[in-house]
Specification:
The strands form 2 sheets. Strands 2, 4, 5, 6, 9, 10 and 11 form a 7-stranded mixed sheet that branches. A 4-stranded antiparallel sheet has the order 1-3-8-7, with no helix packed on it. The chain is an all-beta fold. The relative contact order is 0.33. It is built from no helices and 11 strands.
Length: about 120
């Protein structure tokens, strides 16, 4: 089993910054990729940013130049640095990890989700 614990959400003003963290723990054999998704009110959940085990990153067009995804392989933690926040960034942010467990590493990659953390951007 893999558990993801998110933190760092909260209230920020437009133009401000927040840093989200997601720590993975449990019987982890390997991690293929770590991602951040978000769901704004009355909208579909969307992919915000992804980082692979090779360090390649990808971002949604709406956050390019403002958000930065990074990871700490020792701590199995992924971060999302959010700068120049906009009101439209308000959403619940979810961490996603593609991983293999130590118990059954021969199985395909499985997706694990964090509990979600609220980010509110308001003046």
């Amino acid at each position: 089993q893999v558990q993801l614990v998110e933190s760092g959400g909260g209230l920020a003003q437009p133009g401000g910054s927040l840093r989200l963290s997601c720590a993975a723990s449990g019987s982890i054999f390997s991690i293929n990729a770590m991602s951040w998704y978000r769901r704004a009110p009355e909208k579909q959940r969307e992919l915000v940013a992804t980082i692979t085990n090779g360090g390649d990153t990808g971002y949604a067009d709406s956050v390019k130049g403002r958000f930065t995804i990074s990871r700490d392989n020792v701590k199995n933690t992924v971060y999302l640095q959010m700068n120049s926040l906009k009101v439209e960034d308000t959403a619940v942010y979810y961490c996603n990890v593609q991983a293999k467990t130590s118990i059954r590493p021969y199985l395909p990659w499985s997706n694990y989700w964090g509990q979600g953390t609220q980010v509110t951007v308001s003046s």
